[in-house]
Write a structure and sequence with these properties.
The structure holds 2 protein chains of 2 kinds. By secondary structure, chain A is α+β, with helices and mostly antiparallel strands. Chain A has 3 domains: 176 residues, Aldehyde oxidase/xanthine dehydrogenase, molybdopterin binding domain (Aldehyde Oxidoreductase, domain 4); 186 residues, Aldehyde oxidase/xanthine dehydrogenase, a/b hammerhead (Aldehyde Oxidoreductase, domain 3); 328 residues, Aldehyde oxidase/xanthine dehydrogenase, molybdopterin binding domain (Aldehyde Oxidoreductase, domain 4). Chain A has 19 helices and 32 strands. In chain A, the strands form 9 sheets. A 7-stranded mixed beta sheet of chain A has the order 3-7-1-14-11-12-13, sandwiched between helices. The model of chain A has no long low-confidence stretch (mean pLDDT 96). Chain B is α+β, with helices and mostly antiparallel strands. Chain B folds into 3 domains: 46 residues, Uridine Diphospho-n-acetylenolpyruvylglucosamine Reductase, domain 2, CATH 3.30.43.10; 111 residues, Uridine Diphospho-n-acetylenolpyruvylglucosamine Reductase, domain 3, CATH 3.30.465; 105 residues, CO dehydrogenase flavoprotein, C-terminal domain (Enolase-like, domain 1). A 5-stranded antiparallel beta sheet of chain B has the order 4-5-10-6-7, sandwiched between helices. In chain B, strands 11-12-13-14 form a 4-stranded antiparallel beta sheet, sandwiched between helices. In chain B, helix 9 runs antiparallel to helix 10 and helix 10 packs across helix 11. At the A-B interface, helix 5 and helix 19 of A face helix 11 of B. The structure holds flavin-adenine dinucleotide. The site of flavin-adenine dinucleotide (FAD) has 29 residues of chain B, from strand 2, helix 2, helix 7 and strand 10.
């Protein structure tokens, strides 16, 4: 009798891995019942608001709080002087530097926190900050990173004068943070000296901001009687926050509870620890009542972590056929006033040494210098894994330049240089081991899907008519899932992640993870992993994250690490449960556990039809009838330390047309093929890719944080800062291949950041391609109509008869 | 992001609003609030009193009186867009309103507030110039009428007298041989114009009897490009003439540099918007 249909039915009813199950989160979000930090109202709660510096670099001569304190409803005004006795006027950053919590004698960037006002409500607080009188003496401002290490550059960090051994290397100038290198310099230089062809391209990756819909904020509540601190805050890494708060405050971690409630997007902006959090906690401890602090939009864009700001030079040495012989990358990294980059401790430039991309590069050298400027601190991974976006940008741009110089098509030059399928696992010359990939197959799939040859022909015709059409290509490899604790830690804590799964007697499941969802849909997808492993429908599996009192310790969600690390922990924990369940099933069926085989949701005795126990039956038995000597219950915890990163990849192609009279760009087609290994929920993947492409489009086409010479940030409202609506957003076409990761328990790789990482160079590639016949090799972002028109005008393409 | 303290007053009639303006020092009228409130939230404006005129029925609505369309100052952008009278008799206003800001702003922002505010980035002042509109103003001294041409004097500066209220905006209905065009370049939804240009052309056969070319956001206030108009008036408009006119538009621009662009870009964009609007208006005028 054929029972495959019945088995398939049971399998489908699990809604496990591979199912486009609807998101469990959406019911509350679309009905407006999400619960965000700013929704929390506690009895007696006060509000904090910041007095911020109008200057980018100035000495504070005096601060007069009298008038503010006299305003009815104001409870306190705190400055660095007040925090000094607690040793909290400065705090450590994730990058081994220190950062002023409230400006100590000097301000180092515009909008820096100078004082905090605590008042009955946010309206009084807003009035009170206007009454705090601060006298400044303006100092010379350093905005241009290229000038940072000049002899006559102003000294920014007086606290570091004379301290020339930095956290990552010796410093060679007071505005120098670190020098960091990877690869072999001499061997690389030698290849360049003898190469048949070399290319070199300077490029600037502008300072941008992740700009999540919900800004950062917290509610700190110290219970004086029980000496217990609870902080609700917008954090992508609540457990690390707990550890840091404990280290700073001296309160034991066991008496600190950090809760990340619903989060309205993070994109890296919510990884760091900000002065607003620290002063709210201090104020709550001092005043004994809850204190809320929530940024407004301008504060968010101006002060809490930015991303990028990399001045890069990419160089390739190749033979005449375009085969890469060596790669050289130089970076000047503008980290702002304090080095508060969020990277694994050992990597001051993140995973920038993934910059060999998808290519078989024999030898390479990467050199990064980090410098201080009078800009806000940050340097987070904006929807990407620690500087991967910058790495992919530099290699993809430089590949295009090489293709152009040799007159080889940009798809063809990639074909010639891709790591071949039989070379995996592939060790890159900068030290990574790419786990799996099949770049050639994916590239051909995309070229066929868009009829690449026809597009090139059309472009040829357009050019003869004087029209500007561009075709962009990006063939990227990511590095996500940080990371193996042998090379990845944050403040000394290894970058593992965790899952704890409990199967209840009636067979439903509660599971908690050390990660925290901010839109990724963990409640949906983690349940699917457990469903497939345990044979219990995902509808009966509840997922909880973000409360450090209940969830196991984990490093949080950023860098596409949830599925590669947290998802792996979930699968492994579930497998521990299944192993125990198998013993119980064997006991119930009175056979040896080796006589059992697993089928979807049950154990069956091999060769004896009808002899079987479902996982639900086993769950019940786990609480009343376990084999002798076995402890009752059915739960497991796993702390998963990944053996390697995972390396998702993708092939993106963009076709666009440029209006010469306005500089406006119309993206006609954007084709995105992603390979993230095993696909847990295709619908969620599709959603993540749409979101990531849209954000990538925003970065490439409009986002920037421009400063004037005085260090004034010019675009910190949503009037100027480009967040596309669906009116601006192009139509996305998505596709995929599946090359599972050999080392991940499910073969999954993580996907949410690929579209951001991969689309940005693809847009630049397309824009430059529109001008490539005019010997243009590169144009810096953002490719706004204004900037594109400037190129049109410079080339005289807008001349009228 | 929180305004400083102010007192809120609700006006019940035009007379009441005028009286309240007189009674409270430095009071401001509150219409849709989409220009005033952002300025208050940034504390660029700190009026101690707001007189809310949203409850005054006589300030709302669109009606046809012979060859004139009378638009209440408190008519919202969305009401302009959905007005059948305007769709039929004044397509320029509908087109312009559709390009103002975003749906949220258009739900509350009013044409009166847009004209009275004095922001050179606002679209309606230039549209009023192109349409040769007349404004009806009520003040302590009674009612007066004032042509749009001459009303806009500078940034946040117009011919509105002390304690005066803009009550109604009057525009002519479009006739046979008349064409409207509006082109606006913006960076994204919800943005003000990089440059915008409403154009009204009146044809006599093929000859341009009259033309008004106005410009948005390329000078301290909405302006007319009169030199450009003079090139086209009395002529049979062709491509070469349009180019000459565009060059005059470019020369008329005096924009402030900001993140939308520098003087060169904005001036070129104004010329391009004018070109496009002239072509569109011609097409419509020719029927
Ligand atoms: C994000 C955003 C984008 C925008 N984009 C555009 C755009 O592209 N184009 C555009 O044109 N506008 C734009 N605006 C402005 C918007 O259209 C405003 O609604 C409009 O400028 C003012 O109208 P209001 O009814 O909101 O007036 P309010 O903001 O209430 O008032 C504005 C000023 O006019 C005065 N006032 C109002 N009504 C009268 C009256 N009847 N008599 C005398 N004085 C009066 C008020 O006292 C105040 O000083 C934008 C606004 C925002 C927030």
């Amino acid at each position: 009798m054929d029972n495959t249909a019945e088995v398939q039915d049971r399998e489908d009813s699990l809604k496990g891995v591979g199912c486009s199950r609807k998101r469990k989160e959406d019911a509350r979000f679309v009905q407006g019942t999400g619960r965000y930090t700013d929704d929390l109202k506690l009895p007696g709660m006060l509000f904090a608001d910041m007095v911020r510096s109008p200057y980018a670099h100035a000495r504070i001569k005096s601060i007069n709080k009298e008038k503010a304190l006299a305003l009815p409803g104001v409870h306190a005004v705190l400055t660095a002087e007040d925090l000094k006795p607690l040793n909290l006027h400065w705090m450590p950053t994730l990058a081994g530097d220190v950062q002023a919590v409230l400006a100590d004698e000097k301000v180092h960037f515009q909008y820096q926190e100078v004082a905090v006002v605590i008042a009955d409500d946010r309206y009084i607080a807003a009035d009170a900050i206007e009454l705090v009188e601060v006298e400044y003496e303006e100092l010379e401002v350093l905005v241009d990173a290229h000038r940072a290490m000049d002899d006559d550059a102003p000294i920014l960090r007086e606290d570091l004068v004379g301290k020339m051994d930095g956290a990552h290397s010796t410093r060679v100038h007071n505005n120098h943070i670190f020098n960091w290198q990877a690869g072999e310099k001499e061997a690389t230089d030698r290849v360049f000296e003898q190469a048949e062809v070399t290319v070199k391209q300077d490029m600037y990756y502008p300072r941008v901001h992740p700009c999540p819909m919900e800004t950062c904020g917290c509610v700190a509540s110290f219970d004086k009687i029980n000496e217990h601190l609870t902080v609700h805050l917008t954090s992508q890494a609540p457990h690390i926050v707990r550890t840091v708060v404990s280290m700073l405050s001296g309160i034991p971690e066991s008496r600190i509870r950090i809760v990340s409630p619903d989060i309205g997007g993070g994109f890296g902006n919510k990884v760091g620890i900000y002065p607003g959090y620290v002063v709210s906690i201090v104020a709550s401890i001092v005043l004994g009542v809850p204190v809320k602090w929530v940024e407004d939009r301008m504060e968010n864009i101006s002060t809490t972590a930015f991303a990028r700001d990399y001045h890069m030079t990419g160089e390739i040495a190749a033979d005449k056929e375009g085969r890469i012989k060596a790669l050289r990358v130089n970076v000047l990294a503008d980290h702002g006033a304090f080095d508060a980059c969020a990277d694994p401790s050992k990597f001051p430039a993140g995973l920038m040494h993934i910059c060999t991309g998808s290519y078989d590069v024999p030898v390479a050298h990467l050199n990064v210098d980090g410098v201080y400027t009078n800009k806000a601190p940050g340097g987070v991974a904006y929807r990407c894994s620690f500087r991967v976006t910058e790495a992919v940008y530099v290699i993809e741009r430089t590949m295009d330049v090489l293709a152009q110089k040799l007159g080889i098509d940009k798809a063809e030059i990639r074909r010639r240089n891709f790591v071949k399928v039989e070379q995996f696992p592939y060790k890159t010359c900068l030290g990574w081991e790419l786990d799996s990939g099949d770049y050639h197959t994916a590239l051909e799939k995309v070229l066929n899907a868009v009829d690449y040859d026809a597009l090139r022909k059309e472009q040829q015709e357009k050019r003869t008519q004087g029209e500007l059409m561009g075709i962009g290509l990006c063939t990227f490899t990511e590095i996500v899932g940080a990371g193996p604790s042998r090379n990845c830690d944050i403040l000394g804590v290894g970058m593992f992640d965790s899952a704890e799964i409990r199967v209840h007697p009636t067979g439903s499941v509660m599971a908690r993870m050390g990660t925290i969802t901010q839109g990724q849909g963990h409640q949906t997808t983690y349940a699917q992993i457990i469903a497939s492993e345990l044979g219990i429908s995902s509808d009966e599996i509840s997922i909880e994250e973000g409360d450090t009192d209940t969830a196991p310790y984990g490093l949080g969600t950023y860098g596409s690490r949830s599925t590669p690390v947290g998802g792996a922990a979930t699968a492994v924990a579930a497998r521990k449960i299944r192993a125990k369940a198998q013993k119980i099933a064997a006991h119930l069926l009175e056979v040896s556990e080796n006589d059992l085989e697993w089928e979807v949701d049950r154990f069956k005795v091999k060769g004896v039809p009808g002899q079987e126990k479902t996982m639900k039956e086993v769950a019940w038995a786990a609480y009343n009838n376990v084999p002798e000597g076995m402890e009752p219950g059915l739960e497991a915890v796993d702390y998963y330390d990944p053996p390697n990163f995972t390396y998702p990849f993708g092939i993106y192609l963009c076709v666009l047309d440029i209006d010469k009279s306005t500089g406006e760009t119309k993206v006609r087609r954007f084709y995105a093929l992603d390979d993230c290994g095993t696909r847990i929920n295709p619908m969620i993947i599709e959603g993540q890719i749409h979101g990531g492409l849209t954000e990538g489009f925003a970065v490439a086409m409009g986002q920037e944080m421009p400063f004037d010479e005085q260090g004034n940030l010019l675009g910190n409202t949503l009037m100027d800062y480009f967040v596309p609506t669906f009116v601006e957003t192009p139509h996305w076409e998505t596709d995929y291949t599946v090359t599972p990761s050999p080392h991940h328990p499910l073969g999954a790789k993580g996907v949410a950041e690929s579209p951001h990482v991969g689309s940005i160079p693809c847009f630049t590639s397309a824009i430059v391609d529109a001008f490539a016949h005019l010997d243009v090799t590169h144009m810096d972002m953002p490719h706004s109509a204004y900037r594109v028109w400037q190129k049109v005008h410079e080339l005289g393409l807008d001349k009228r008869a | 992001m929180i305004p400083s303290e102010f007192e809120y007053h609700k006006a019940t009639s035009i007379q009441d609003a005028i009286a309240q303006l007189g009674a409270h020092e430095d009071a401001k009228l509150l219409a849709g609030g989409h220009s005033l409130l952002p300025m208050m939230k940034l504390r660029f404006a700190e009026p101690p009193h707001l007189i809310d005129i949203n409850g005054i029925e006589e300030l709302r609505g669109i009606r046809l009186e012979g060859d004139t369309i009378c638009i209440g100052a408190m008519t919202t952008e969305n009401e302009l867009i959905h007005s059948e009278i305007l769709q039929q008799h004044c397509p320029l206003l509908v087109e312009a309103a559709r390009l103002v800001a975003d749906p949220q702003v258009r739900n509350r922002g009013t044409i009166g507030g847009d004209v009275a505010h004095g922001d050179p980035g606002n679209d309606h002042p230039a549209v009023m110039l192109a349409l040769d509109a007349t404004f009806v103003l009520h003040g302590p001294g009674g009612e007066r009428q004032q042509a749009a041409n001459g009303f806009f004097l500078g940034t946040y500066w117009n011919d509105l007298q002390e304690h005066e209220i803009l009550v109604e905006l009057r525009v002519p209905v479009i006739k046979k041989g008349v064409g409207h065009g509006y082109s606006k370049l913006k960076r994204k939804t919800g943005d003000y114009a990089v440059a915008g240009s409403p154009v009204v052309i009146e044809l006599d056969g093929e000859v341009c009897r009259d033309i008004r070319i106005a410009l948005t956001n390329v000078a301290p206030m909405a302006i007319r490009a009169e030199a450009a108009e003079n090139i086209l008036r009395g002529k049979v408009i062709d491509d070469a003439l349009i180019e000459q006119a565009a060059a005059e538009v470019l020369a008329a621009c005096d924009p402030a540099e900001d993140l939308r662009g520098d003087v060169l870009y904005k001036s070129h964009m104004a010329a391009e918007m004018a070109r496009r609007s002239i072509r569109a208006a011609l097409l419509q005028a020719r029927g």
